[in-house]
TrEMBL record:
Organism per entry: Xylanimonas ulmi
Subunit structure as annotated in this protein's UniProt entry: Homotetramer.
Protein name: Nucleoside diphosphate kinase
EC number: 2.7.4.6
Record flagged with keyword Kinase: yes
Gene: ndk
Length: 139
């Protein structure tokens, strides 16, 4: 049975013109785009989205980075899409993410306290439901 995940093209990805490339990879893999919207995040939204990282040393700079420009929020749908998109995205650190993945092919380290790694993908069905509710209220 199909499930849904929340994908974000973060401000670095939007700024670099990679939104279309990320959508292309999601569709080329065979997943369906259920919703797509450019969102200017607010501190309130980010505090909820990143609740599990509150208190970590990079939290402040993570929120600041996510406020630095628009984010493309995407709901992707398909069988095992949560796992499948995380596989497409690659490891968190873009320097060592495997080539062939979004982060491995398109990302690298920058100066700054926060890893700019182009995309986010929900890590579980519970996270996906919570995050879709935050970024697409009413969906
Ligand atoms: P993501 O996994 O989507 O959500 C948390 C984000 O915090 C992560 O992407 C990176 O952008 C950032 N991040 C995670 N770990 C670190 C770290 N150790 N140092 C700096 N930034 C991090």
């Amino acid at each position: 049975t199909a499930e849904r995940t929340l994908v974000l093209v973060k401000p670095d990805g939007v700024r670099r013109g990679l939104s279309g490339e990320v959508l292309r990879r999601i569709e080329a893999k065979g997943y369906r785009l259920a919703a797509v919207q450019l969102v200017h995040a607010t501190p309130e939204l980010l505090t909820q989205h990143y609740a599990e990282h509150a208190g970590k040393p990079f939290f402040g700079s993570l929120v600041e980075f996510m406020l630095s420009g628009p984010t493309l929020a995407v709901v992707a749908e398909g069988v095992r899409v949560i796992e499948g998109f995380r596989s497409l995205a690659g490891a968190t650190d873009p320097t060592t993410a495997a080539p062939g993945t979004i982060r491995g092919d398109l990302g690298r380290a920058w100066d700054g306290a926060v890893m700019q790694n182009i995309v986010h993908g929900s890590d579980s069905p519970e996270s996906a439901a919570r995050e879709i509710g935050l970024w697409f209220p009413g969906l």
